[in-house]
Write a structure and sequence with these properties.
Elements lengths: L10 E3 L2 H5 L1 H11 L2 E6 L6 H8 L5 E4 L3 H13 L3 E7 L11 H6 L3 E6 L12 H13 L3 E5 L2 H18 L2 E6 L1 H4 L2 E3 L9
Parallel strand pairs: 2-3, 2-4, 4-5, 5-7, 6-7
Antiparallel strand pairs: 1-8
Helix pairs in contact: 2-3, 2-7
Length: 195
């Protein structure tokens, strides 16, 4: 029996993120890439990965108030001799576009892992514009972008993106599709979404 809350929020996250194991595999890739600094805006899609990084004494995690702070942190990490990854949701990508000029023009590596919204099975219309424009926005300022929809492909793609970023001095983003992380559901007592 499914119990639906009587009060908002009515949506929940599918368990695909937890059961697929991809966050643990991505954590292993970040460790192999010698990532020492992890910045993030709290996001359910990255929650397991964030927990793994927080538990690692060799990694420093920083919770951000806005995504562009993570771009600056990445610059500072590289200038200080460390590697960094920025974790964010697609709705925050728009906040980074102006700031991305710095690492791109300076040829400072920046690895970004972006959980997608506004794609497959999205319920929130406000997520659609940035979700549909994320790739184009990043590419328009010179970021290399990889999009993954299958959980088994996420970790190898992150490994390849890290290799490319840190060996070529490029900004590289991996967009992790909603099919892989699990779509948010709008569960109302009627079962068919908002009215």
């Amino acid at each position: 029996m499914i119990v639906v809350p009587a009060e908002p929020p009515y949506w929940t996250i599918d368990v695909a993120e937890v059961t697929s194991g991809w966050p643990d595999d991505v954590y292993a890739q970040l460790t192999a890439a010698r990532i020492r600094q992890v910045s993030y805006v709290p996001d359910a899609g990255h929650s397991r990965l964030i927990e793994r990084c927080q538990a690692d004494a060799a990694m420093r995690t920083v919770s951000l108030t806005t995504e562009q702070e993570g771009v600056a942190l990445g610059l500072g990490a590289w200038l200080g001799g460390e590697r960094h990854v920025l974790l964010m949701q697609s709705s925050g990508v728009g906040n980074t576009i102006n700031m991305l000029a710095a690492p791109i023009e300076m040829r400072v590596p920046l690895l970004m892992l972006v959980t997608m919204r506004g794609e497959w099975a999205e319920f929130n219309p406000w997520q659609l514009p940035m979700g549909q424009g994320t790739r184009a926005a990043l590419e328009s300022v010179g970021t290399l972008v990889y999009h993954v929809d299958q959980p088994a492909e996420i970790a190898p793609t992150v490994g390849a993106a890290a290799h490319m970023a840190f060996n070529t001095g490029r900004a590289v983003a991996v967009l992790i599709g909603q099919r892989a992380i699990g779509a948010k559901n709008w569960n109302k007592q009627t079962g068919d979404g908002p009215r």
